[in-house]
Structure formats: C-alpha cells, structure tokens
Amino acid sequence: MKRNFNVVNKSVRKIDSLSLATGKPMYVGDFKPADALIVKMLWSPHAHARIVSIDTSAAEQLPGVHAILHHGNVPRIVHTTAGQGFPEPSPYDTFMFDHKVRHVGDRVAAVAAETAEQAMAAVKAIKVVYEELPAVLSIEAALTPGAPVIHDEPEAHVPIPVPYEPQRNLAARVAMEVGDFEAGLKEADHALDLEYYTDYAQHCPIEPHVAMAHLAADGRVVITTSTQVPFHVRRIVAQTLDIPVRRIRVIKPRIGGGFGVKQEVLLEDVVALFALRTGRCVFWKYTREEEFVSSRTRHPEKMRVRTGVKKDGTITAMGLDCITNTGAYGSHALTVVCNSGSKILPLYRAANIHFVGESCYTNLPVGGAYRGYGATQSSFAVDCTMDELAELLGVDSLEFRRRNAITSGETSPVFRALGEGKAGVEQSIGSCELDRCITLGARAIGWRKRGRWQDKTGRFRRGIGMAALMQGSSIPEIDMGAASLKINDDGSFNLLMGATDLGTGSDTVLAQIAAETLGCDMDKIIVYSSDTDMTPFDVGAYASSTTYLSGMAVKNVAEKVAKQMLEVASAMLECKAREIRLENNRAVRRDGKSVGFGEIALRALYGTDQHQIGAVSSRISHKSPPPFSAHFAEVEVDTETGRVKVLRYVAAVDCGTAINPKLAEGQTEGGVLNGISYALTEQYLFSPKGKMLNAGFSHYKIFSMRDKPAITTILVPSYEKTGPYGAKSVSEICINGPLPAIANAIYNAVGVRMRTSPFTSEKVWRALQDKAG
Amino acid sequence: MNITLTLNGKRRTADIHPNAKLSDVLRQLGCASVKMGCNEGACGSCAVSVNGRVINSCLAYAAQADGGTVETVESIGSLDHPHPIQAALVEEGAVQCGFCMPGMIMAAKALFDKNPSPTDAELAIHLDGQLCRCTGYEKIQSALRRVAAHGAPVPSPGSSTKGGRS
Amino acid sequence: MKITAYHRPETLDKARSLLRDLGPAGIPLAGATSHAFMKGDDEKTAVDLAALGIDTITATPQGFAIGAMARIADLQAFAAPGWVLDRVALRFVSQPMRNMTTLGGNLARVFPWNDFPVALLALDATLDIAGDTVTTHPAATFFKGQPARLFKPGDLLTAIHVPAVGPGCGFGYHKETVVNMDFSLFTAAAWVRRDKRSLAEVRIAVGAGVPLPQRLIALEDALTGKAFSRDTVRAAVIAHAEAVSWKGGDGFSADYIRQLALTHLEDALHAAWNDAAGGAV
Q1: What is the mean pLDDT of chain B?
Q2: Mind giving me the DSSP string for A242-255?
Q3: Between A285, A704, A713, which is nearest B131 by CB?
Q4: At what angle do helices A333-342 and A375-393 cross, to 10 degrees?
Q5: Structurally, how many domains does chain B consist of?
Q6: Is residue B166 in a domain?
Q7: Which tens digits make up the pLDDT trace of A429-452?
C-alpha cells in the first residue's frame, strides 16, 4: 500500500541520542545525591531453607547504619513482583521479606547505611540461623510426586481464576485442543515426536537494576527507577507497603537497557520503605552478580513437539507440550508459557492442534519477562521440527514452510483459544509479507547454494539454516496506552506519555507519529516519558506494544489537538475547518493563505476565546497483529572442536510501516545478536547446591563487536490497517530466529540435530562423536 | 591522600582513600559519563583515557592517575559541536539505551587518533572491550566506517538494505 | 584486599627497599587488573612500579628485552623482524585490559589460564629478577611452580628477554576461548626450527586445562629430528597428549579439553612449521 509520509517512515535522528553520546547525566545513578544512603542486601546462601532466627543487633550498632529490614519488621503482604496489568496473571507468592528462602540469592535482610562499605559491613554482621530444606533443582525433580513443596505458605494464591497447585510445585497450567489431535496423528503419513530444551539466560542490560527514593516536602515518596513499567511499580509498591497509591510518585529517567528484566518490581519497595523509615534519600543499585542471580532470567523450557504430516505436505497434527522452570517465584509463569503456544502455533496451519503449557517452581533463579517471552523457546522447537518434517518428505524446508504458513486474511483457532490468563481474542491476519520475507532473505543468504550435509567434506563445514517467525503487537483487550498533548506559545507541543522508552527509541517513534499527524517538524515535539504524576497511564514497555498501541494513542491525541487547532485557524482564516490542512507547521487554507502554529497558539492562549489547546487520549486494541520475519544463518562448524561460528545472518522482517527504519533495523540487529549468543555461548552454570557459578561478564559470555557476524536487515514493508500509519511491532520477534536458524544451519553443515541449547562447542562435538558412532 | 589530575583539561584535586577506584572518584568529580556496568573490567562502560591510554576505570586505583591526564566523554564534543564520532553514531541510529556509549566513544576516539582510517578488523580489535546489548554493534560499526571514510557512507556486507515493494 | 597506602617510587632501589620494609603488608602494583579478583579484607600498602622506567621494548643482539611494566598493548603495537608476541597480545582479553595489564604483572603470579607464560615457554625466554643482584631464570624454571618461590622480600621481576624467531624458525600460537574476550579454555604455543623437511628443534607449551602452563617435553622429544608430515605430527600429539591429565572447567569436561589439546597442538605445530617456511602467519 502506498503512503506518502512527511515524518513517519523516515530515519530521523533519535531525539535523545546526542545527549546520551555526549555523556549528559540522564540515568538514575546520575541523579544520586552525595548524601544518599546506600542499600546492600543480605542474600540467601541456601537454595531452600527456613530462617530460624535473625539477629541484627550487632549490625545495627555499626557506624553509618540507619535501618535494617527483614521479615520481622516489614508488612507481610503477599504479591507478585511481575509488572503486569491488574489483576496480574502471575501468582501471588512473594513477600517483601519472608521467613523462608527459596533460592540462592533470595532476599534475607536489607541494610541502609551512609556508605556502601558500611552497608556491606552490616550485612556481614547480621546473624542468621537457617534450617536447610531439601532443594528442588530441576523441572523433573519439581514435578516428582512427594517433592519438597517450595510454596507451602498458606497465603500463596492466584488473583485470577487459573490453575495453580503450589502443593505440587505447579505454578501455572494452560491447555487447549482444536480438532482431534490423536486422530490427526493417525491420519499422517509421517509423524515426529521430538524433545527440545532451552536453558537459563539473562538479559544483561549494561545498566543493572537501580532505584532511588526520597520523601518530597509533602511527605510523599518519590521513586526514581530504571523501569519499563512505572505505573505498575507505583501500584505494586503501594500494595506491598500497604500505603495509598496517591502517596507514591514514580519517575523513569533514561534506562540503560531492559529487554524485559525491568518489567519487574525488584528494588523499589525496599528503597521506598527505607526512605519512609529514615526520611533520607536511599539508593540501591544491583551489582552485576546480583543482576544474574537475584533479578530475572529467561525461563528454561522443556518442549515436546508431536506432529504428523501427509505426503502432500499437509500438516495433520501439531502438538506442543511445554514445561517451564519459573524458579523460586512464579513471575510471568503462566503468560510466558501461554505465549509459547499462542505466538507460535498459529504460524503453521494444522487442522488438529494440541497444546499444554505448565510451569513449575524450583529452588533456582527466577524466570521473568524476556524479549520474545516464551515464543523464543517454542520457535526453536517448532521451527526445527518443520525442518525435520521437510526432510522426511524430501522437500525444500523453505518451500515446506511457505506452503504451510499463515497468510493475510486467514485466522487461526489458537488466537481465540489462548489468551493471557483468559480466553484469547479472535483475529484474522491483516498485513502479512512473510512470503516476501522468505524470498528476499533466501536470496540474500544464497539459500539455493547451500547443498546437503552429506556432500560436505573437510574439517570446516558450512551450512545455511532458516526459521520463519511471528510474534504479536500488544496484548489485545488487556494492554492500554495513553498520551496527552498540549500546544505552547511558539507552536511547539508537549507530548506526555506513560509509554516507557528503555533505549529502544520509542520516544522518537511516538514523536514522529505526533509530528506526522499534526503536520509539524520533529523538533516541535517535546517528549516527556514517564512520570506517574505527570504523564497519563500506560501499561509500560512490554509485549511489543509501544509503537503499535501507545502509537495509536499518540495518533489519536494528535488528531484531537489538530481538530482544536483547525477550529482556531478557521476563525483566523475565516473559512471552514475542513478547508484547512495542517502542514509544515502551518494551517493552510485552500488558496494558500496560512497561519503558523505559533500564531494559532498565541490566539488560543492570549487572544479571543482563550483556552488551552490540548487533549488526552487512551487506546486499547482488539487485535494483536503479528509482525512476521524470516531469518537465515550461515554457519561454519569446526568438526574437530565442535565450535560453531556464525558467518552471516540475514533477517527479513515485516513490521508493517517502519516508523523509523534505522531504529527498526537497530531493534532487529540487537535482538538477533542477543539471540545468537543465547544460542551459542550464554549459559548458567550451577553448583550441585543450586548456586550460580558464573555470575559475571567474565564467565557469562555475551558477544562483543569482535565476535559478531555481519547482520543484514531487510525491512519488508506492509501496511497494518489497525496500527498507527500501518505499523506493527518489531522489537521482540527478532530474538526468536537465531536458535532455530542456527540449529538448522548446523544440521545443514554436519548432519547433527541440536535440540538442547546453548549449542556449546562441546555439545556439538559430542553430537558429532555420537553420529560417527 | 590527596591527588591532582588534569581532568578534561582542568587541574583538579581530590582527597581520596588509597583504595578508591578511579571510576568512583571521576563520578564524584562530576563526570556522570563514567558508567558502571560490571565493576570487574569486563563491560567497558567505565572506559576513560588516562595518559593517552583507554582503560577500565573501575579496575584502576585513583591514586595511579595522580599527576596524570584523564579524559572522559565530557571533553569530547558537545551538543552544539559533537565530535565526528558522536555525530556519526547519532546519524546512524547507533545510540539505543546509550549506557555503553561513553566508553565506546572513548575507545573509538583513541583508535581514530592514532589511525584515522581503521579497517573493520582493526575496529573490532580496538572495541572488543566495549559491550553493548542493544544494537548488535551493526550500526556502531557502520557509523565508525563512515568516520573512517571521512564522513562518506560506505557499502559493507553488514549494511542494511531496503527490500520489497513500497 | 584493601589498599590502605600508596607509593609510587621513582627508582628500583627505592621500590625494593619499600617492599622489603613492608614485607607481607606490601604489594607491588603493576597494572592492577587482577586486584578485582583478590577477595578478602587484608590491608596492603601498594608500591606502584609505574615510575621505574622499566616499560620499554628494545631490540638486543639475541632478540628483545621487554621491561616488566610494558603493557600488553605495547606488545600488540610493537613490530620488528622475529617479533611474535603481538600475536599473543592480540588474543589477550580486551583492548582496555591490554592497555592496563603489564607483562610483568601477568607473569609474576601465574593462573592456569595465563596466556604469556605459554608463549614464553615455547620461545625459551628468560626472566630477570632484581634482588641484591640481578638473576636470570629460563622460562622453564621460572614457571615450574608459582614464581613467588623465586622472590625474596623486595625482589622484583624487571625484564623479560625473548629471542627473535629467526630465519628457518617459526612460531605458532592457538588459544581457544568461548568469546574473544575470555579466559582460555586451552592454549598451545609451538616454536620450531626447520631443517629442510625435518623438525630440527621443537618446543611446545600448553596452558589452561593443566594446573600451570608447562612444556610438553616428551612430545618435543618425539618430534625432534623427525620429517614433518601431518601423520607424524598427529601420531605424536595423540601419543603424548594422552599422557597429560587434562582438567575441565567453565562448563567443559576434561574429555573435551583433551580434544581441544589434540586439535590445537596440531594446529600450533602446523602454524609454526608454515611460519618457519615464511608461509602463513
């Protein structure tokens, strides 16, 4: 669909980028007053234990110590740390501090002191007697009948009616069936039953979690925090501390990366309570080790894929059984595993579909939201299975995917069956250029020249693999975005949004949408996000919602403001409003006579019929239009060492209209590289007692520029009618490709199927040894 | 102990503990651009130039810089007059969350000061201590290629292309 | 460890006498990069060696003299016929760490994964310890155990002498890591002197996967004087690498490290052979 835009679909400069590149103070840590108290936490050294006693008397006497928090002196209010809409689909299984610890790195007691050294000294001086309990350190152990119960507290419950059985360590369960799955299997000419496993991973924002709180002159608590969800922080802190929402203000400055891990309320309750108790400004920043152990992770997931296919390529049955390990708390337990089904199963047509998603508690680090959100895990399982099905049929896996992939105008029963903690929302696919993504990506990587692994020789063997992907754009009929907009004397506008730019550039993208709608230049839009006292509500930056949903709210509010401006202009230009266009910062009458936005503002603010031109608007969505993508990886496998090197990577993505193409490419490239190291090198190593052994960048391996392959992004335009100027989401989908594309490429190179991630060199070497027999 | 530094061209003194890390002292002296990402020398966010070498200031003792010359991003370009490296990063959309940028820019500038036209391989070697989790380094690389070519955009195997119908 | 006092003496004598007087309370400060890994609360007085002027690389008749305070980045940037440590430097951690770390600091206290001891063993370097007099130690002796055993209070490592890799000789260096900026999983260095089609002289050293970097003398002996061929090298490596007790770590098994050893020992020998022929670097 052709559209002529002035500001949208242009790679305008990211509005905060030069300030960031010149090192201006913009992050939470940059606003820390010199006299702020510093928080240090005593973390559990045990995977599972009861706190028999806790003695803080010696610690309290140490110099500089102002307050200590532990389960004996804070409100005992059960809640979830998951920063989700209310009521949350995650179980209420967390206390600010508890008399039981459930993983190494769980909270025991917090100290606020004048300096970090004094706080650490006090942490070391707290005497705790633990009664160690048997620890549950795997999915299998968690679900064994008679396993130790991790959440035996009577308060644990779910705030919405969904299955929850903590007495058998089951944090969540969801199931659906379409057609007759078993019959579908019987109907098939070929059937496959395969198991896949993805392991722990961490988001690794370069800025770890950080939060600060102080009391305003009126006694309210002001929390400045690196969060993706300022409004959920306000609500959950109010709940946890049992104080009114009105007493809390949450400010989100620039964020040093999030990727989902900052969709969680992890520090704010502690700094807020310390501020209330001490009256001082209180600052807490996680160390990198704490970021790995005591924040959130990608849920490890065991997946079983059962499929059947007819000789003509028709998929007769698609079954997916998933179990995630949510760790010690059920943060995002239900919704992540729901997404393993709902975001992936609609991609390939099947008459009979079976899905069961479960999540179990263990005494290991806690799962959470992580870019891709369950779809990353199941994309691996499903797309590798597609590769194997194609091989069984003896057809090109690319053509097999193309034949079975959903297209524009189609629907999937999965959309209706699977929502987030409730039934889903039926939708048919509007924009979809997956087919073209496949064509262009295949051409860019040289798909046709990839050959068969059977014909490859030598120590270093190359292979090409692909994956087809979909995600969503916002959670339909659950998420809400809002914005307010007002004009200033000079024809500039304040755009206030609850939407949370966590480094993605959403402030810029949303300003482009406003500028396009208003007919003004980008520099006329002054963006402020987000501050719960100032900006309208927004659920926050997650579920691929910002461009699509908050973007619609911005477009809508800009339309309202434009209408008000036209009314003023019509009086000034002495014509009907519909005879006026807003363009180039002016209101232009048909004959070319015009008034500038500044003149309109001055008249409205100081002249006749004085009023503030301004509006507020909010939007929800009844759809979650999927972006689509085809990913291609070329790898080289060293058959002596098993080392896999990604040589080239191509991501062709249909995100609708790219509001800012360069930023959309940047989202894709960042997600892809994160996905590549997740596939190859990132892993959690644990001691036999459940302690993470590699909690630092020296031993948890993410890529530098020297490790990266060349990544080519191909933006394939489509036009999503329900989105702002045709836009869909782009940020999450791109992380889902590398696991399946690389696994399929390894197969194409050396003929081994990698079904357990990460594909470390030793795992690939062992697979090669096994294959050689 | 007292130390004296030439920090971003100005003589500064500070009363420090001998155990104080340079990164902490620089932040106390007002250099908010010195970011702390790992405190073990593995992420490069705290990279600053000391006597012409770019180092991880979280590992260095402030005392080691006594009498020396220290430069942070605060001295490299401004909003009105950005350094060509900063301008290129901004134009290429290479600044996402921005937390790694001060260290990245210090490391890049140190390379360009010695070698105005580095190859891709040289860029990768000299920036291998600067972790970024947002960009996949693709746009950072293309920005620095532009600087290497004195502002002229150069095609590359990893550059982005626009495909499809419009 | 906590630094409670700091000195930066300007002469070697002053540094030595300070450290001698301080005894266990003193710690020489070279690049400081390993201090982050020294846990505990013990208090130390740092004696910074940065002002001693022992940070240059100079050509000598036999090869090169490297001041102990030369940075890894200086080794990376140095170029001269017969100089090969730039290859080792390029694989060392990351640029800011190469800019900070000193060669002396990297050698004075040896960790299993240290890079430079492996190269210096293969190159048959010597190391100078300044005590009351300067004593010179072959790398093979210096790295036989923790070098600390060779130092009396106040003694300092001041210089490293590396022979040039001369005509007919070659050097191969292979380091396996998971990502570039990483601790070694296995490091192999090989130096060979070539006589037509034969290996006239061979030195081979390994690091990581073994408790401390070491020469593989039995393998060297098995190859010395042999005609070079893929099969000869492979057979010797397999026979002698079996005898080493490899250890795993960082998520990798001992079996796998052994496999890396087999592969990289061969690779390093081939690289050294090609290098000696004026071939691939």
Answers
A1: 91
A2: T--GGGEEEE--B-
A3: A704
A4: 30
A5: 2
A6: no
A7: 999 999 999 999 999 999 999 999
Average pLDDT over chain C reads 95
Distance in Å, alpha carbon of C91 to nearest chain B alpha carbon: 9
Say whether pLDDT at C26 is over 60.
yes
Counting Cβ atoms within 10 Å, is residue A606 exposed (0-12), middle (13-18) or buried (19+)? Answer: exposed
The backbone torsions φ and ψ at residue A526, rounded to the nearest 5 degrees and listed phi first, read -100, 115
Contacts of C50 in chain B (CB under 8 A): 64
**CB neighbourhood size of C21 (10 A):** 12
pLDDT at C281 (0 to 100): 42
Q: Is A578 on the interface with C (CB under 8 A)?
A: no
Beta-carbon pairs below 8 A across chains A and B: 230
Strand segments, DSSP code E, in A231-300 are 248-251, 282-285
Give A32-88 pLDDT, tens digit per residue. Answer: 999 999 999 999 999 999 999 999 999 999 999 999 999 999 999 999 999 999 999
Residue A448 burial class via C-beta count within 10 angstroms: exposed 0-12, middle 13-18, buried 19 and up: exposed
Say if the Cβ atoms of A23 and B101 lie within 8 Å: yes
Q: B110 and B56 in one domain? A: no
CB hemisphere CA count around A82 (13 angstroms): 29
Residue A2 has pLDDT above 90, yes or no: no
Q: Does the pLDDT value for residue A158 go beyond 50?
A: yes
% residues pLDDT > 90 (chain C): 90
In A371-455, where does DSSP find H-type helix?
375-393, 397-404, 413-417, 434-445
Looking at every residue in chain A, the average pLDDT score rounds to 97
Residue B32 in domain: yes
Which pTM was predicted?
A: 0.97
Average pLDDT in the C79-101 region? 97
CATH number at residue B89: 1.10.150.120
- From A34, A505, A661, residue closest to B96, measured CB to CB: A505
Number of domains in chain A: 3
Query: C279 falls in which pLDDT band (50, 70, 90)?
Result: low
* B157 pLDDT higher than 50: no
Best of A708, A761, A764, A766 to substitute, by most chain C Cβ atoms within 10 angstroms, is A761
Q: Report, as an integer, the average pLDDT of A625-635.
A: 97
- Structural domain boundaries, residue B128: 84-149
Asked if A493 and A591 sit in the same domain, the reply is yes
pLDDT digits (tens, 9 = 90+) for A509-565: 999 999 999 999 999 999 999 999 999 999 999 988 999 999 999 999 999 999 999
- pLDDT of the residue at A189: 97
Q: CA A500, CA A536: separation in Å to the nearest integer?
A: 12
DSSP string, A655-693: -BS-SSHHHHHHHHHHHHHHHHHHHHT----B-TTS-BS
Together in a domain, A334 and A277: no
Bridge pairing between strands C43-48 and C2-7? parallel
> Is A72 inside any structural domain?
yes
CATH number, position A335? 3.30.365.10
CA pair distance C267, C263, nearest whole angstrom = 6
- Between CA A367 and CA A679, with CA A687 as vertex, the angle to 5 degrees is 50
Only one residue has tokens 């309750």, namely: A269
Does the distance separating the beta carbons of A699 and C94 come in below 8 Å?
A: no
Question: A123 near A59, Cβ under 8 Å?
Answer: yes
3-state SS, A701-743, equals: CCCCCCCCCEEEEEECCCCCCCCHHHECCCCCHHHCCHHHHHH
CA distance B21 to chain A (A): 13
Q: pLDDT tens digits for B40-76?
A: 999 999 999 999 999 999 999 999 999 999 999 999 9
Contact A711 B42 (CB under 8 A): no
Cα dihedral B8→B13→B14→B19 (10° resolution): 80
DSSP secondary structure letter of residue A28: G
